[in-house]
Amino acid sequence: MDFNVKRLTADAGTFLSRAVQFTGEIFGQAEKTELDAHLETLLARAEYTKLWTEIIMKQTEVLLQPNPNVRIEEFLYEKLEKKVPLHANNHEQLGKHMTDSGHELGPGTAYGNALIKCGATERQIGGAEREFIQSSTNNLLTPFRNFIEGDFQAISTERKVLQNKRLDLDVAKSKLKKAKVAEARSAQLNSTPPLGEEYGAHFGYMLSFLHVKWLKMWAEEEVQAETELRVAQREFDQQAETTRLLLQGISTTHANHLRCLHEFVEAQAAHYTRCCQYMLDLQKQLGSFASMLSSNNNQQPSTSTSQASMLTASPSVPPISPSALNELHSSSTSHKARVLRDYEAADSGEMSLVADEIIIVSSAPDMDSDWLMGERGNHKGKVPITYLELRD
């Protein structure tokens, strides 16, 4: 217990001496030992490295995850040392909606099929984005964060120790200076002391003499002050060298960060190349739909005219051969049929049609001979025969 109290008292005294010295330096009332120019340059380079590493790291996090709420969630899970729940990214969500809508509208239709293909591509892009984020986190963010939380923390610790050693050195210099001043004034007064009854006439002299003696006691002996100064100077030099060696490691940090940056750029280039290839493949797949729609648009006036004249001349004659129609009516089997042109359902019992889509048709009992039962996915309804062409 006595040892702890003494140690606490010594630490409190040291802290107070440093605080007084630091305050005096701020107000220009105390001398300050300056670091050498090379060490100051190394310290400045370390500070700039830390500052820009934090800025690049934070902006990279924004790039990889633009949603701030998700970033906060990931940060909390990381601090709690728990696994971050898997969330679908924007491309994956869009791909899911496109795929679901394509199946709902009918995969046999041109539009539904195109939606399904776009959805699959968007999901591929989402998966590629997830891999790019993971690669960037491992190759860039993690090394940068390790530097901030590891290497630079060690530099900061040694820098604080160096600051304390410098304050101790300046305190020792100040104590030695005061001890020498007190010794000089004491020697000056002791060289011409008053004699006899003149002591009473020189009361001011006595006060000055006692004041000098008190200063000498407060500053300790000159020899002891010189010893403390030598110890403080040695510890300061050792700590300055330790800090310098640690700061020189910033060059290695820059080399490591350069490698991380190269890997990040490589991953980013591979990601964009991969996504570009996905989109080029999708563009080729959708090209057939575009050319088919273009040809349909160019042929639409003549086709509509011919179909209108055909219906006007013989409205009851379907484009389905009589034998195929009889077979369809006489059997309960289903057949595929291609829609010749768009048809808008007149009521809830009918099913709307889109040109060039493929549907399933069948005959139903007691149904008019000009109509069939159509099926597209989960949708069913009556469809006119004149709008269909049976497929094998």
UniProtKB/TrEMBL annotation:
Classification via PROSITE patterns: BAR, SH3
A biological process from GO: membrane organization
Keyword Nucleotide-binding attached: no
Organism (species): Conger conger
Chain segments carrying region Disordered: 293-331
Coiled coil stretches, renumbered: none
Protein's recorded name: Endophilin-B1
Keyword annotations of the record: SH3 domain
Lineage: Eukaryota, Metazoa, Chordata, Craniata, Vertebrata
Compositional bias annotation for Low complexity: 294-309
Record's keyword annotation contains Cytoplasm: no
This protein's GO CC annotations: cytoplasm; membrane
Domain SH3: 332-392
Family: Belongs to the endophilin family.
SUPFAM superfamilies membership: BAR/IMD domain-like (SSF103657), SH3-domain (SSF50044)
Pfam short name (any one): SH3_9
Residues covered by the BAR domain: 24-295
